[in-house]
Description:
Elements: H1 4-27, H2 33-36, H3 62-69, E1 75-80, H4 86-101, E2 106-110, H5 113-129, H6 132-143, E3 147-148, E4 153-156, E5 159-164, E6 178-182, H7 192-197, E7 208-213, H8 221-226, E8 232-237, E9 244-246, E10 250-252, H9 270-281, E11 288-292, H10 296-299, H11 308-314, E12 316-318, E13 325-327, H12 330-338, E14 341-344, E15 353-358, H13 374-387, H14 391-399, H15 409-413, E16 436-441, E17 447-455, E18 461-470, H16 486-492, E19 500-503, H17 508-517, E20 519-524, E21 527-532, E22 534-539, E23 544-545, E24 555-556, E25 562-564, E26 569-570, E27 573-574, E28 577-583, H18 584-595, E29 602-603, H19 617-621, E30 624-630, E31 637-643, H20 651-666
Parallel strand pairs: 1-7, 1-15, 2-5, 2-6, 6-7, 8-15, 16-19, 18-29, 19-22, 22-28
Antiparallel strand pairs: 3-4, 4-5, 8-9, 8-14, 10-11, 11-12, 12-13, 16-17, 17-18, 20-21, 23-24, 25-28, 26-27, 30-31
Helix pairs in contact: 4-5, 13-14, 18-20
Amino acid sequence: MVSTEERIEQDQLSRVTQGMLAAAAKKRFRGSIAEFIRHVPMGRGYANENEPFDIETACYLKPVDASIRNPDKPVTCCLAAVQMLKTFFCVEAAAGYFIANDPGDTTIYIGGDDSASDQARARLLPYLRGIPEVARQLNAAAEANRWDVTTQEFYLPAMILRIWGLNMNTTQRITLRRVIISDAFLTKKTGMIAQAVARTTQHRRDRKVIVESQGGDAGDDMDEFWKTTSQGWLHVRCPECQRAQPFDFHRERPEDFLATPPRTIPSLDHAAWVEHHSPILRSPDRKHCGFKRGDDDLIKRADGSYNEAEILRQTYYECYHCGAVWRDTPATRQVLDESSHYVSQNPNALPGYDGFSWPAWAGRRLPWGGEEVMLGYLRAKKANDEFGNVEPLKQWYQKRHARPWDANLIRTIRVQTYQFYDAKSDWPEEWRGHRALVVDCQQDLQYFWTSLWAVSPTGKSRQLWRGILHGFGDPKLDAKDQPNTLTGKQKEFGVLDQFVFLDGGYMKNELIEECAKHGHWVTIEGEREWLCWTILIGSPQKDFAHKADKNPKVRHPVSDPFYEYPEVRVGGYRVSVEIFYFSALQMGDMFTRYRDGRGPETLFLPETEPPDKKTSWTAQINAVTKQHLVNNRTGESTEIWKPATQTTPHHYFDVGRMFMAVLCLWGVAGEDVKLVEAKAEETPPGE
């Protein structure tokens, strides 16, 4: 039985609650979230001198505001860069708006339990207390002793507010109208996002789920939840041509690209402008657009290092449609921000599941050349390219680009040096007689991953052909009779016998016998010499001494030749096969520099397969990373190029590494070491 004192207390509390609800009903605000908080100081953690938030300085948040308030949108999911107002707007401002204007039991899930308590004390509760309508409810709960700071539960007059960490205990046995999840990437693959969302099952008609996060890892809970939404990517309009486009860091124009004239071009001249500019903008040196760091003459020093001050000044954005240059000025950022809108990338989104994604260069605050955008990207890329440290690049994509990290991502976004050119056309700079056929040998020497190159005396190179060949072929037959063999391809492109380089790390003895069959006689300084196919073998040794130097301190990335004498005899004479050993570590370093455009001009043939296909050229040349192995006995660390996974082959990376050894042998590697001299020009076989 309820005592008289308890009944009186309940009646008093009921009258207080009813009075506050009635007052709230009379004063319920019907405008946007941004309008509701327009007089509330933002508080700690925001660089605006404690001024209220003005959405006109962050127009990219207007569609987010509308989605959060829309009763027909049960889910609003924001995948955005750090320090770009996602937590402020989706958590702090949204919570204050709903507490004051549309109360309903709400749990705000933040990181771990400690993070939830810290953020509640440091940011969330102080901000909510700055909203008069919310402050009255918080004070009423405190006066009625319905406020548990320890458990972060607040029994407000019209709702229960909880600020909890996201874990198994906090997502059980409660029914919620609203769930707000902050920093959702921290859940990894625990299933906690789904558990939290399931708490709203009883409120199918009026529930609201708000999720905000930076990028996490591909396949984690946040990534999978994001895929159920509309996946709206931020788009802006070019100030010159007015065409909308994804505000992405980098884009590439396709072969069938057609340009859009700027507004300044008279309509009668549009056709001529398009005809003239379309091939220019899709040409190899212009097809890459988006953010650009400026001319190398300005942003690079003589030693190849970056001039960071110049990068900050020179970075600009190139329009995909018209090629216009967007300079990084306050006026440009304002125009772009005012044109902000989102375009869905997912036609199969669940009904009412809105998704919004914006990067660090959205809005008006951050300079494009700074460490949050271009400079940060270049630093991270350098750490990965030069030291094999992928973590800074991963952090940049997750925190600044707001993209889930996938190990395959770097393959598709790295600026490639693929170019369209006629591989069989005349190249005036080519070093005659110095084409190289480089071969990675496979199972039982029955098929081979192969690449064929032309080089210039200054170290430039062009890939002429690549693919899989079957069988060695017969040196007595013409190319047309054996097109898919090593010999057939060698003869088709006129490669000298001694410049066919085979990987000798597999079935070396059998290779020695075969190489001896593919050669020709020459006379060098009065002596007859048999020049035949050459064997290259990768070595864990970092460098080698050469006898000609007469100084063991002078080191080289490729060894002196070693000679093997097969059983095969040519014209009754016993012949030899040359074998060179090369530093697998140094040649791996060198190939990654050439691959990424940081060496002499190296042109690769265009990719012919999807870059994420495991056997594609792109996937294979990026399948290997530099790693540090520690000797458990000595504690010494050793660098090695090793596949990131065992599922992606790396034959083309091995071919590229062998080609670097060839350039060293020919003395055109651009390396600061003494190199073996190349042999004199010879007449190609069959001529």
